[in-house]
Design goal:
- This is Abortive phage resistance protein.
- InterPro entries: RloB (IPR025591).
- It comes from human gut metagenome.
- The protein has 101 residues and is of the alpha+beta class.
- The protein folds into two domains: 48 residues, no CATH class; 52 residues, no CATH class.
- 45% of the residues lie in helices and 12% in strands.
- The protein has six helices and four strands.
- The chain has a two-stranded parallel sheet with strand order 1-2. The protein has a two-stranded antiparallel ribbon with strand order 3-4.
- A hairpin with a 2-residue loop joins strand 3 and strand 4.
């Protein structure tokens, strides 16, 4: 949808779809068909298994503040309580539970 408040150059800019595959895959009928369509049209990014890492990268200085200091824990992504490490880290930084609707 075109929005005059957002500068979008159709010649230069691209819209893409990024989704958390572990959630999306379970809820969407014809998941493989959706993925094939997105890949064929270069509009798809699948963040699996760490969508929260993708979200965390949008915060200012995220690499220096959160990712580099926790690199080993992020790579191993072990459970912390009932959540994986990266989900727990994202929730601490953002105050948002990324798995809620």
């Amino acid at each position: 949808k075109l929005n005059s408040d957002i500068s979008f150059d159709a010649e230069m800019d691209r819209m893409i779809i990024v989704f958390d595959a572990d959630i999306f895959e379970e809820k969407v009928k014809d998941f493989d068909e959706v993925v094939a369509f997105g890949e064929n049209n270069n509009i798809l990014g699948i963040s699996n298994p760490a969508f929260e890492l993708f979200l965390l990268l949008h915060y200012k200085d995220a690499y220096e503040k959160y990712i580099k200091p926790n690199e080993k824990e992020i790579i191993s992504n072990e459970k912390v309580g009932n959540q994986r490490y990266i989900r727990n880290l994202f929730t601490q930084v953002s105050g948002i539970n990324p798995k809620e609707k």
